[in-house]
Write a structure and sequence with these properties.
heterotrimer, A alpha/beta, B mainly alpha, C mainly alpha, B: mainly alpha, ABC transporter involved in vitamin B12 uptake, BtuC, two-stranded antiparallel ribbon, 12 helices, 2 strands, globular, C: mainly alpha, 15 helices
């Protein structure tokens, strides 16, 4: 039997105290397409980065064609015949394609002679695989999908035998996706092994020879997609339902009022790639949110749900349409900003990964007033500091934020406790509309449950809550209603209780469900 | 005719005064294009001047002096790289430390070695770098061509010509060599570089040290090329003018060269006016106005009044 | 200079270690340049603290260091690197000189507030330029302040060669302020309180410097503006989230910073020399960076660091009298090494110190796997 084209053995990787990869073993047969699926945070991207040397694991070995190799940086990976297509491409904008590709071929003073030879080889590869671009075109003229192809071309030119792809289809149109898939089939025929991570299950189900399922940093299953249905595949991925008990929405029997109305909202983007094409990062957004309601916004990467939340919070400007909050109408202008939104009773919990909501260098009692600091300063020098500390300590006790010492640096707290502090700060202001981005990121299970209880209580007292999330468990447990986004548009609205997690997962994977 | 001749002499002085700026600005160019900010040019220039004069004076060989200048400034830029790249220190703070250290160390050592109030002895012609006379292909006469040839082009210090060679080398390397692309990428898009398999730190180290070595030439020109010995704080802000030229030249070698020449011209004009002040009537333009022109122009560039400032994307930011 | 979140003990030890390293390096470099270290230290100490006169001069110089240190530190809390101290101090001195000449003969009770106001105003205006450029044209504040330093110094030379030049003087100095417009010296203040001290240039600006330190402390940690300043300094994202108008904060902060540094002019011109000369700032503006770094940007730390630098300055100039070769370069050397070790290399010792302090604190990091 042939030895695997790429084999990862017992890979362990920690991020701080979290085990991101837990003894992962993966074998990729030569000339096969191998998919990896799993929920967000399952460790898929981390595993790929280990294979390409962008992340060094604490433990584990890599074998290429049965030979152990030492991969500490991308150069090692390239030398071992591994190429990678990154989720976001990164090129030198003002150089030609060929210069970008030759960048890795470090040959010093004279470029021209080598370039002529390389040009022939590259042209040959272009013909073979049907790439249509000219090698002398400047990188800035290419769009995203063409840049991806250059990434692949570079890997091929450098003799890659294994190609790693991280979410290659996330930003492609269906047509571009199909082109890419054809190319992958072609590469496979040429004997190149492919390792691919993607959210769109149907695509993986269609093209992969083997699919590995990851969950919580572990590789839990290897399956042959020919033998199972797509629905079953999705079930494997989401695992068992760990939805928390969801108290019924009382919206129907209380006189709920219209809290937020968004009509025809859009953001026109300046085109980034130097082309004259105009694009919208959000367009035609129409929806309403009532009091006593929790609404989830979701979609795949860059679908626009995160942008919309930032727009509602006043953190990001919009260019079209209007927002009506509690009867006050806003047109696109600079008038609607975070400060203004706060005055209207909107509280905003930003994505914990951005660190926006905290100031790492500040003691906790100072972070605890961020955004609400206008009223926190009095002329009474001796009293005010102690007063703020006391308030902060009470809040921390109530929300079980540990260690319970308001003098500590915010940065010294664990991510989960930082997030709890931000939630506590915003919820304690008793907002009429609470906006949250990925609210339970970093929280452990126990904390999630108690946070949810508080959020339900806030809802039942009449507040509206909107959150964006990519975590299916969170959406199913917390929301009353789900709004689905794709390419900056709303593609569907559903009541959560009429959905199962599996339905949602399939919908996100672009499958039609008879709901 | 008299008038033309005096213009030629003015341009001739401009070339001489632009040379140290050109070396220093190019040194800054190499380092900053790789993403490491360098406000320590002034200090390194001073160190280079001191090392060159001291070694030339002790050994009697000007070229050994040049070599010493390159080594010394290279070492100090190694320190800069160590602080900025390895320990992710603030580029400005580190550059400032080098400026302060250079001023102190050169003065203390000069006093210690030569005991002449912080100066080296006046260097003899053998201890200085030679000037280059062009071959005798044009006769000496009053025609413009001859004047230009003999008074503007020929008869400069060897480092003046070297400065232009270095500029053209920089242009060539930037455009046609992988080294150039790699250095530019280290400042503009380190991520792409990393993915292509390079160590960004290593490239930045090399660029910073290369910049330091070029800066040594600038100092050497001051003390053993144009001048004849080291004097305490002899750079008097030339390093900052070079920094201004780098920004005014938009981080491009041709632009840097032209702005150095322009700033050199302004300086020559100021000197001329100062001389004429004692003989002729008071000049209309205050000398200080000429002095501050480079700085004001740089402010305008930074303010986006004259075109757009084109700083490397990751300039001054430590690599994560 | 963003603090990584260190436990406070480690942070203090790290600061002290950095200062220690800087002083050690100074000793090494100085002994390599042939200075007799033991003698030099005792001479500096004696010169700075040994006599009443020495102490007076020490505090007089410390006043300048406090002002420039406070200015640099305030800007730094907003994430701005104000290295325009030289220029702002120059303008401050110019403001004082102009107002004192214009209002000559006015009662001191009115003249002092007026000169303080003008001093602050001139410094603030000079700092407004880079602040505005930074906020609205996103110009690099380091470069703009450097350029403005050089412009200010040329501007001063221009004025002293022309408009402000004292008639009948060869040197480029302004006409002298009348002795009646001088700030009260500490000697007269103490005499008023019944103490008898010798006459030194030390004057009431030292007390003003202490007031400014306390005021800055209050401003940074007890007012809304100070809070917003520090948020802006930490991260643009957090400031945006908190609804803080960063541009406004940048401008306010830089103007206060410029005003503080401008007070160097008050101490120098109205407190001591009573005339403007070309280089009255003499590096005090730059020195603020070393002072602020050494004092960890904390007003109390800055006062302590300033007294240390004042002592070095005074002791160093004593040394300069006795030993021809040394002069103020010793100060520049120590400044440079302080900037290097407390600034550029400030995190160098962090892993070492964290390692040595590990057994003293049981943190959760102890349980981490070795990376």
């Amino acid at each position: 039997m042939l030895s695997p084209a790429l084999e990862l053995k017992n890979v362990v990787k920690y991020f701080h105290d979290i085990k991101a990869l837990d003894e992962v073993c993966l074998k990729i047969a030569p000339g096969s397409i191998h998919g990896i699926i799993g929920e967000n945070g399952a460790g898929k991207s981390t595993l790929l980065k280990v294979a390409y040397g962008l992340i060094n694991p604490e433990h584990g070995q890599v074998f290429v064609d049965g030979v152990k190799v030492n991969i500490e940086n991308p150069q090692h990976a390239i030398d071992s015949g591994i190429g990678m297509l990154h989720q976001t491409t990164s090129w030198l904008e003002h150089y030609s394609i060929i210069d970008n590709i030759l960048l890795g071929e470090y040959n010093g003073f004279f470029m021209s002679r080598k370039k002529a030879k390389a040009r022939q080889e590259l042209a040959q590869l272009c013909r073979e695989f049907g790439f249509s671009f000219q090698l002398d075109m400047s990188m800035s003229q290419l769009d995203y999908s063409e840049r991806q192809l250059v990434d692949i071309l570079r890997s091929l030119y450098r003799g890659a035998k294994v190609l790693i792809l991280d979410e290659p289809m996330a930003l492609l149109s269906p047509l571009q996706s199909n082109h890419l898939l054809d190319l992958l089939e072609l590469l496979k025929m040429q004997g190149i092994s492919i390792l691919i991570v993607a959210h769109k299950l149907s695509i993986l189900h269609h093209i992969c020879d083997v699919i590995s399922v990851m969950a919580h940093g572990k590789l839990v299953d290897n399956i042959n997609p020919k033998e199972i249905s797509l629905g079953y595949l999705s079930k494997l991925m989401v695992g068992r339902e760990i939805t928390l008990p969801h108290p019924n929405n009382v919206v129907s029997d209380v006189d709920s009022s219209l809290r937020l109305k968004v009509s025809n909202l859009g953001i026109k983007q300046k085109s980034r790639l130097g082309t004259s094409r105009q694009s919208f990062s959000l367009s035609d957004i129409d929806f309403q949110v009532n009091s006593h309601e929790i609404v989830a916004l979701t979609g795949l990467a860059k679908a626009g749900h995160e942008d919309l939340l930032a727009v509602l919070a006043g953190s990001k400007p919009f260019t079209h349409g209007r927002i009506t909050v509690n009867g006050t109408r806003f047109k696109p202008s600079k008038q609607y900003d975070l400060k203004h939104a706060r005055e209207l009773g909107i509280a905003y919990v930003p994505d914990p990964l951005t660190g926006e909501g905290i100031v790492g260098d500040f003691p906790l009692y100072e972070t605890a007033i961020l955004g609400h600091h206008s009223t926190s300063f009095s002329t009474n020098v001796l009293h005010q500091k102690r007063h703020r500390q006391k308030q902060c300590q009470d809040m921390m006790r109530e929300w079980d934020i540990r260690p319970n010492n308001p003098m500590l640096n915010t940065g010294a707290l664990s991510g989960g406790n930082q997030q709890k502090l931000v939630l506590a700060r915003e919820v304690s202001k008793a907002p009429q509309l609470l906006l949250m981005a990925h609210p339970s990121n970093g929280l452990d299970v126990g904390a999630i449950e108690s946070v949810y209880q508080r959020l339900f209580k806030l809802r039942d007292s009449g507040a509206s809550i909107i959150f964006c999330s990519n975590d299916l468990d969170e959406i199913m447990s917390l929301s009353d209603r789900v709004i689905l986004f794709e390419r900056g548009q709303i593609i569907g609205q559903y009541y959560s209780q009429q959905l199962s997690k599996n339905d949602l997962s399939l919908m996100l994977a672009n499958e039609v469900v008879d709901a | 005719m008299e008038n033309t001749f005096s213009w030629i002499l003015l341009l001739d002085a401009s070339l001489r005064l632009a040379t140290p700026l050109m070396f220093a600005a190019l040194a800054g160019f190499v380092s900053e294009r790789a993403g490491v900010m360098d406000i320590g040019l002034e200090g390194k220039m001073l160190l280079g001047a001191f090392a060159a004069a001291t070694i030339a004076s002790v050994t009697g060989s000007a070229w050994q002096g040049v070599f010493a200048a390159i080594i010394v400034t290279g070492c100090f830029s190694l320190l800069h790289a160590f602080a900025c790249i390895t320990h992710k220190g603030d580029h400005v703070v580190s550059g400032l430390a080098i400026n302060l250290l250079a001023a102190a160390v050169t003065a203390l050592l000069a006093q210690r070695i030569f005991v002449q109030g912080g100066m080296t002895p006046i260097l003899s012609d053998e201890q200085r770098l030679p000037t280059i006379e062009f071959p005798n292909i044009i006769t000496h006469d009053d025609s413009i061509v001859s004047q230009l040839y003999w008074h503007l082009l020929s008869g400069h210090n060897v480092l003046v010509y070297l400065a232009f060679i270095v500029v053209f080398l920089a242009i060539y390397l930037m455009k046609y060599s992988t080294w150039g692309i790699v250095v530019l990428a280290a400042g503009d898009n380190p991520t792409a570089l990393k993915r292509a398999g390079f160590s960004v730190s290593k490239i930045r180290y090399m660029a910073v040290i290369a910049g330091g070595c070029i800066c040594g030439l600038s100092g050497a020109f001051l003390s053993i090329g144009h001048g004849a010995g080291f004097v305490e704080n002899m750079t008097v802000g030339k390093g900052f003018i070079a920094l201004a030229a780098l920004i005014f030249g938009r981080w491009h070698p041709v632009g840097v060269m032209l702005s150095c020449l322009f700033f050199g011209f302004l300086e020559a004009l100021a000197i001329r006016l100062q001389e004429s002040r004692f003989s002729d009537v008071d000049s209309v333009i205050p000398i200080q106005l000429l002095e501050i022109t480079p700085y004001v122009l740089t402010l305008c560039v930074l303010a986006g009044v004259i075109g757009k400032s084109a700083a490397p994307a990751t300039l001054g930011k430590p690599m994560r | 200079m963003h603090n990584k979140s260190l436990p406070w003990l480690n942070s203090i030890v790290l600061t002290l270690a950095n200062i220690g390293l800087a002083l050690l390096a100074s000793v090494i470099v100085l002994s390599l340049t042939g200075v007799d270290i033991g003698a030099a230290i005792s001479q500096i100490y004696h010169g700075a603290f040994g006599t009443q006169e020495g102490r007076g001069y020490t505090l007089y110089y410390a006043t300048n260091f406090i002002f420039s240190g406070l200015g640099v530190a305030l800007a730094w809390h907003a994430g701005l690197f104000n290295i325009g101290g030289e220029g702002q101090a120059t303008l401050g001195g110019l403001g004082v000189a102009i107002i004192c000449i214009q209002l000559d003969g006015l009662s001191l009770w009115l003249l002092i507030p007026a000169s303080m106001l003008f001093c602050a105003l001139f410094g603030a205006i000079w700092a407004f330029i880079p602040a505005w450029l930074n906020a609205y044209r996103s110009s690099n504040i380091v470069i703009t302040t450097i350029m403005l330093n050089l412009i200010a110094s040329s501007f001063l030379v221009y004025l002293l060669a022309g408009a402000l030049k004292a008639p009948g003087q060869m040197a480029a100095v302004s006409e002298s302020l009348s002795a009646a417009s001088a700030l009260p010296s500490m000697q007269s203040v103490m005499a008023f309180l019944g103490f008898n001290i010798v006459s030194t240039p030390l004057n009431i600006s030292f007390l003003w410097a202490l007031v400014c330190s306390a005021g800055l402390y209050y401003y940074l940690w007890y007012t809304k503006l100070g809070y917003e300043t520090r948020v802006v300094g930490h991260s643009d994202e957090s400031a945006h989230y908190a609804g803080i108008r960063s541009k406004r904060i940048v401008i306010i902060t830089m103007m206060i910073s410029g005003a503080l540094i401008g007070f160097i002019g008050l101490n120098e011109v109205q407190g001591n020399s009573l005339q403007l000369n070309v280089d009255f700032v003499a590096g005090f503006g730059f020195a603020g960076i070393a002072v602020a770094l050494m004092g960890r940007n904390n007003p109390l730390g800055i006062v302590i660091a300033s007294i240390l630098f004042g002592a070095l300055y005074q002791g160093g100039s004593e040394l300069a009298f006795n030993e021809e070769s040394i002069g103020n370069n010793v100060i520049f050397l120590i400044q440079g090494l302080v900037v290097l070790f407390c600034g550029a290399l400030q995190w160098m010792l962090k892993p070492t110190i964290n390692y040595w302090l590990r057994p003293m604190e049981v943190t959760k990091e102890d349980k981490l796997p070795v990376r």
